[in-house]
Amino acid sequence: MDMILVTTPDIPGRQITEAIGLVRGNTIRAKHVGKDILASLRMLVGGEIKEYTEMLTEARNEAILRMKTEATTVGADAVVNVRFVTSQVMSGAAELLAYGTAVKLAP
C-alpha cells in the first residue's frame, strides 16, 4: 500500500493507533538564468510565469518524496496534517518544506 498523505488530522474510515512524530522533507531550488530571462519577458506582458510554476511543482514533489521516505524509515503507515512552507534562503534561491505527523494505522 502506498503511503497515505492528508492535510487533515485524521483519515476517514481509518483509525490512528500511534503518533510517531514529526516527519519532513525539503529542497532548496535556485533560479535558472535562462528561465529568469523568460520570466522577466512574461512579466512585461502578463500571465502565468510557467517556468517558476514548473520549478515550484518539481520542488514540492521532491519535498513530498523526501517526507514520505522519512515516514517510511520510522515505520509510519500515513502522514497527517501535511503542510507546506516556502521561504527565501538567499537571493535567487528558495526552500520548499513539506512536513506532517507520521502515524500508524489499525489494520
Could you characterize what this model shows?
The protein has a four-stranded mixed sheet. The protein is α+β, with helices and mostly antiparallel strands. The model has no long low-confidence stretch (mean pLDDT 87). Helix content is 35%, strand content 40%. Strand 3 and strand 4 (93-105) form a beta hairpin. The radius of gyration is 17 Å and the shape is elongated. The N and C termini lie close together (12 Å). The protein has one domain (4-105): 2-Layer Sandwich (Translation Initiation Factor IF3).
Number of helices: 2
* SSE ordering: EEHHEE
Tell me the β content. 35-45%
**CATH classification class:** Alpha Beta
Average of the residue pLDDT scores:
87
Uncertain runs: none
Spatial strand sequence of the major β-sheet: 1-3-4-2
Number of domains: 1
Distance between the termini: 12 Å
